[in-house]
Amino acid sequence: MSHSKVSRRGVIKTGMVASAGLALPQYLRADSHTGFTNAPGDSEVVLGFNVPQTGPYADEGADELRAYELAVEHLNGGGDGGMLSTFSSKALDGTGILGREVKYVTGDTQTKSDAARASARSMIEKDGAIMITGGSSSGVAVAVQALCQEAGIIFMAGLTHSNDTTGKDRRANGFRHFFNSYMSGAALAPVLAANYGTERKAYHLTADYNWGYTTEEAVRSSTEAMGWETVNAVKTPLTQTDFSSYIAPVLNSGADVLVLNHYGGNMVNSLTNAVQFGLREAEANGQNFEIVVPLYSRLMAKGAGANVSGIFGSTNWHWSLQDAGSQAFVQSFGTKYGFPPSQAAHTTYVQTLLYADAVTRAGSFNPCAVAEALEDFEFDGLGNGPTLYRGADHQCFKDVLVVKGKENPENEFDLLEIVEVTPVDQVTYAPDHPQFAGGELGACNPGA
Amino acid sequence: MDQIILQILNGLDKGSAYALIALGLTLIFGTLGVVNFAHGALFMMGAFVAVTVSKLLTLSHKVVDETRTDFLGNPLEVDVPYVYDWFGQAAGDVLIDWAVPIALIVVVPIMILIGFAMERGLIKHFYKRPHADQILVTFGLAIVLQEIIKYFYGANPIPTPAPSAFVGSFDFGVAFGFDPNAIIYPYWRLVYFFFSIAIIGAVFAFLQFTTFGMVVRAGMADRETVGLLGIDIDKRFTIMFGIAAAVAGMAGVMYAPINSPNYDMGMHFLVLSFVVVVVGGMGSLPGAVAAGFMLGILESFASMSAVIDFLPGINQIVIYLVAIIILLTRPRGLMGRKGVMEE
Amino acid sequence: MLGLNKKDARLLLIVVAITMLAPFILNPFPAGSDLAQFNAGYPDLMQRFVIFGILAIGFNILFGLTGYLSFGHAAFLGVGSYAAVWMFKLLSMNIIPAIMLSVIIAGVFSLVIGYVSLRRSGIYFSILTLAFAQMSYSLAYSVLTPLTGGETGLQPKATDARILDGALEPGEAATPSLFNIAMRDSFELSLGNWEFVFNFGYYVAAVVMIFAFYMSIRIFRSPFGMMLRAIKSNQTRMSYTGLNARPYTLAAFVISGMYAGLAGGLLVAMDPQAGAERMFWTASGEIVIMTILGGAGTLIGPVLGAGFIKYFENIVSKINETVLHQWFYWLPDGLEDFVIAMIYPFVGKGWHLPLGLLFMLVVIFLPGGLVQGGQKIAGLFSRKTADEPQPKATEPAE
Asked: Rounded to whole angstroms, how far apart are CA atoms A222 and A225?
């Protein structure tokens, strides 16, 4: 959608063109010339930022949107350039994408797959978006990814952690930079074994939907490989807010570790409840009782407050990382907005840059050309160390952070501390790994 | 055995939360005949009174600490709460720690005022309108209240801890001769339970033993006759609405430490509390309370892993399943009156 | 005409005209202009307008006529959607068998739920339907994941069986179609700066909606419709005359359930993905609100209400701060920021707020819903120019 500012001259010009057009109706689709959907014009290109703006993940969505705006600013040559200067690929030069100024439209996914698809379709059909990105849950990511596949648009996933996004529901037009359940399990298990020993009995509380299932499976299989035993795994409804009846029996179950496969509001509440029940101070089987949260985010940690201190989990990225890329990003984000970015902001910023870079290297906005440029692309300088965008399943492979809630946070953003950076080799798996089986990328679809 | 006792305890705790919210809802319904979809929002506003009080107490001014730096490398600005300046650090910490109990005192006048304003400004005009209109207008109001809260506080939950004196759990097991750790329950949840019982008892006593309560009960039964007797029933109904709002608000404040409040917590409780009220029987206060406890206990039992293994998914649907069974076997819920909201 | 009286025939003709010309009506602003933000004439939203219109028309047959307030209608929409996707997966990407099955399954489902729920009336009935719908949602999201796809929803895949269709060519995606014309095929017409999209799927849905609307007029005017109204006004009296109300209400319930199933099947035909959120209680509440907002018991009201809510959801939610700056760039800087600060809480991520206010204002000032508002305006209009016929879209339907 081009929002050229209307001047009087512009109006007169428009009027003339309009009358000329009326005289000669044209039956055309811009696409038919170029061979792909929503081919941009010569002056600007529209990206669609589809994030939750209402509902429980609205704050996360707001942070993603901030990162997108920052990325657009940097792509168009504004601001301090952020990670453009640290990115290993130097194709981007701050003149937009392939010389076209980057514009964007926003939409509200409401964290519902229906609403997310409606919003994405309006971006594609009405605003002519060439790429859709965003989202804060795997259900939405999978739904929008499938839509983009059908429409012939590239989808750069935002925060989505379920194995399914690049596993059984992978699509040729969809790409994920964020890590996944398997990687969380693989990265966490050695740290847990080192800190809590290998003689542990775990009790899982699992959110009763796809992401919960994949996370439980990942954490279970990797901790059991370390020698842990799983005492029980109980599924909890998504709509549950008070987890007391699930947590009350834990202490007397013979378990000495509680794994909370919850995210968002579920995680905030279940962790708060677990701490209320005194699990953190309790002892079981002669050892200290411990709680583990496989997927952490700073916003969730903020919601749970002091309850997170000392509790292990994994995260995709954290603002306290000291590499040049992270520093540059935190610097420009913090200068613009006054607080450090979240991991959701980081992954969406990076995804936007990666897309722009792939287009530039491919020399075309054609989704198939972009996909080819992204597949098996190796890069560095975007905050996670050397990273590979694997072609076989469109998943990024990079180091995973194991973090723990800080004991004495110095300010409201200083909630997590990095315990270990698990090297990428430890979290790499085969594309046909059983936890990711049943998916088929298919062929890329340029649409039109 | 200990598991069952534990879940009964848990169910009583859950049930007291349901009963307290359902009580306010059925109070408004029973006295005014209005279906109030904004009741969940009143509960949420109560919780946010607790959040606000704790924010006000920690309201601070910035002092630059040159020795430390923030995440961008600039000198760190340390927040110093005003209460430290006024009462000294020790007393200030106590005040901040006791934010939730302080909010409990503040919330009553605030919610009564909000209740009065709602009843006089909006609800009053809907007494004679169809229930569907009442639902739509109060639902609209609930959305507006939620959005206002979201605008100021964001969508993320805000941790609002209980005073540190109530942190930790009470070990029932030891008291009753079981193993340690077999039956433990957090202090604050026990406080919540006894608080609910006290409020429920107070509301009953108020309606049963005061003249005011007697008039209101008479008004519930036959509004016109009471009006003909020259009693200004409208004024009393306004007061009842204020009381119901205050009950919802207090429930919200007390609930804040249990789960971090966020702007749409009311919507979640709304559906549940409606089910509770209807299962209890429309217009019946004891019915609502009984149904609250019953559904709380059943929900707790359904979440036991032995039960879930036997009937997968039962924990997802137990409340609705029980509601269906009760409504089919008892036409007007547990203690509903004939002819109330049946057309 | 078609068994309708003159007034109803006029209303039907207007609905036909509006739906057929919707691509023009909904795109009044030239593409690229600042106001293009308010254009709603793109396939997805046009499809949603008519599909949710069907849903609301069906709901109105139950609620508007009998007064039974179902709070679980979204379940039938969801069941219809799942049935259609399974048809796409197993049989064919042709939408006809899919939609037929979704109507049948939703009909059976509503027969069962209706049979049980209609044993009670008033709010007890509402809570029973709510309970059934919430159970459907919870189970579909969790334990029924193998059947429903759970959180990630159900979609046709390239690898599905599809007995009637031949195998897909490599790289070809499974697209819902009607005799090999894909639902998303569009024809674009540029007239100067205006762009109009004529989408095949939209016209399929629009034709179905016109038919659904026609059926609803016939039901409203039939003896059966009279009977339903009698139930609403006084069920006791009706039973004293020796009539059993239950078969009539059950029939109305099943009909409206089938309408919902039809809407669910069409939704999937336009956009092949079914998710459990479609059955959540807020979705049921949305149907109720659409109907009351537009005017329960009127013929056209529910369609208007559906259009209003979908418009807010899809258009107002997309107005962000940048867009506002583009609109008000011509104001002096300080004033521009002030105006934007005033408007911003009501648009974009704050789009729930004007919607909530709208609900309140409509109920307070227009007890008959938007239709009544239309009548008031029409009343003003006709008083000034007494000879002119009243605008028809706002014609009272009862």
From this structure: 5
CB contact under 8 A, A442 and C158: yes
Residue written as token pair 């834990």: A250
Say if A13 is an interface residue toward chain C (CB within 8 Å): no
Question: Architecture of domain B2-329 in CATH?
Answer: Orthogonal Bundle (1.10)
Copy the structure tokens of residue C260: 């919902």
Structure tokens at C168: 């897909």
Instruction: Please give the Cα distance from C336 to B283 (Å, whole number).
Output: 53
Instruction: Sketch the domain layout of chain B as residue ranges.
Output: 2-329
Displacement of CA C270 from its chain's centroid (Å): 14
Q: Which of B14, B262, B313 sits opposite A245 (nearest CB)?
A: B14
First to last CA, chain A: 19
Q: What is the pLDDT of residues A379-407, one digit of tens each?
A: 998 888 899 999 888 999 999 999 998 88
User: Hunting for tokens 């709002």 — which residue is that?
Assistant: B245
Residue B304 CA from chain centroid, whole number: 25
A229 domain-assigned: yes
Mutate to test the interface with A, among B8, B13, B44, B72 (most CBs of A within 10 A): B72
What global pTM score does this model have?
0.88
Q: How many CB pairs under 8 A join A and C?
A: 166
The span from the CA of B93 to the CA of B281, in Å, is 46
Residue with tokens 């049935």: C83
Residue B112 near residue B62 (C-beta atoms within 8 A): no
Q: A328 with A257, same domain?
A: no
Please give the Cα distance from A209 to A215 (Å, whole number): 10
Residue C326 · residue C34 · CB < 8 Å: yes
Helix residue spans in A263-323 (DSSP H)? 265-276, 298-304
Interface check A4 vs C, CB under 8 A: yes
Same domain (yes/no): A217, A327: no
Whether A41 maps to a domain, the answer reads: yes
Q: What are C79-124's pLDDT values in tens digits? A: 999 999 999 888 888 889 999 999 999 999 999 999 999 988 888 8
- Distance in angstroms between the alpha carbons of the first and the last residue of chain C: 19
**DSSP of A353-403, one letter per residue?**
HHHHHHHHHHTS--HHHHHHHHTTEEE--SSSSSEEE-TTT-BEE--EEEE
Nearest to C57 by CA among C363, C306, C227: C306
